Amino acid sequence: MLNQLSIQNFALIDQVEIDFSGGLSVITGETGAGKSILLGALGLILGKRADHSVLKDTSRKCIVEGVFDLRGYKLSVFFDKNDLDYSDSSILRREINGNGKSRSFINDTPCTLDVLKKLGSQLIDIHSQQQTLQLNDSQFQLKIVDALAGNDKLLSSYQKDFVVYQNLKSRIQSFEQELAEAKQQEDYLNFQFKELEELNLKVGENDVLEQEQKRFANSEDILKNLSEAQSLLTDKEDNIIGQLSALKQCMQQSEQYDSDFTELLGRVSSMLIELQDVSSEVEGKSQDFEYDPERHRVVEERLGDIHRLQKKHVCSDADTLIEIKENIESQLLAVSNSDEQLKSLEKELDQIKEKLATQASKLTKKRKASLPSFQTKVEETLQSLGIPFACLRVEHQNQNDFTKSGKDSFDFLFSANKGIDPAKVSKTASGGETSRLMLAIKEIIAQHQQLPTILFDEIDTGVSGEIAEKMGTILAKIGKQRQVISITHLPQLAAKGEHHYFVYKDVVNDRSSTQLKKLTDDERISELAKMLSGSTLTEAALNNAKELLHD
Q1: Which of 51, 146, 196, 318 has the CA that lies 20 to 30 A from 480?
Q2: Residues 115, 45: contact at Cβ < 8 Å?
């Protein structure tokens, strides 16, 4: 439950810190004093979004902090799952700076807004007038029925499988689309593959062919150069080898007289041996070189085929054609195996549908089983709240396909008058009747949920007098099981609270500021008397207030 709420620099609040207790606490105050501001601040630590407009002073941070007693609510699993330190007394904090940037903390550990929101939803249920309007919303109605049926675990298991089901449906749909496109291209892919397969290109072959083609294309120049080289090396009168042999003789003769020429002689001898070897190879290449016009034609045609396919597939490297061929082959293989893959996916889908059908059937059974008792209890409570002919009917419809909540939908139909058939709440219930209907539902749900705290924001809208007192009695009854906080404008309801808080405006440094304080017994009598008779306190009003408190 909420033990303490601290608010700094939020809207009209400069700084407020208030301690809360168990049971029923009521909050009253003049219109415009700031009761809604308290709800807004509390909403921040429950994960609602906000911006810098909530800051009273943009030069300072807005800080809202709540201290919660978590004992007995089995929330340690949530803390472990989200890498948070668990404590029986845990602190939720929200900070917003002047730029509107927000930070969230749980027990001083930074967390995402989503994590804060998920934890907050397990700590407090805020019932606002907007939630009353949700009585006509099918999803809200379904949540009520599930709370009554105790479907938390079963629904959680179903929803995990439903995510798998949706993903599989999406995969099959995408797969079928891809398959249809692939089959449309299958003939063209086969044609491309046949072309590349017939080409039978080997890695590096293009480079070898281009070198060969270059040799054939320049054969005359090659033969001419070989002949000239041979002439320079051996055939001319002053050929290189002859001159180098003469140089060697000079070095040999000089070496006989001076050992310093030994090294030079060795170097000249090496050059001579190397040139003689070069001459031998040049002669061999001259003899072996043969221009083959047929081979030249074959090479030209082969390169033409390769370059044509390179251009067709837009690739600068001929070896890439091999990769393209392998890729096309993989695509064709995928198409040929696609029917089996599709059957496998459809089999998985059938299995998960069967599992969902079993779970959905269990959900339906439990939901429908909870309805008779629910309808009867709501009607009994409404009768005690001054609607003697109240009638609530919950109609069930089967859905054709699975939804995130099963295969059910419900309609809450209501009538407050004898002889009038129940219809949708929005068409048949007044504001006061809707408030009482929601309170009756909340009373029943409170017995089936483990929420530590329920906050009612003017649940007494549209009622007064004796009915307000009876609503207060119901809130006090709920308060015996969990913490209940009720913002109210009716003294009959406020008198039922174990603790009474008063919201008021004060002027601090020439600026209006919202304040909140817990009333003493005497202050409480005065506040109830003002709510009964206005700002002028009369003896009769004070006596009425005392009677309300001790009733």
Answers
A1: 146
A2: no
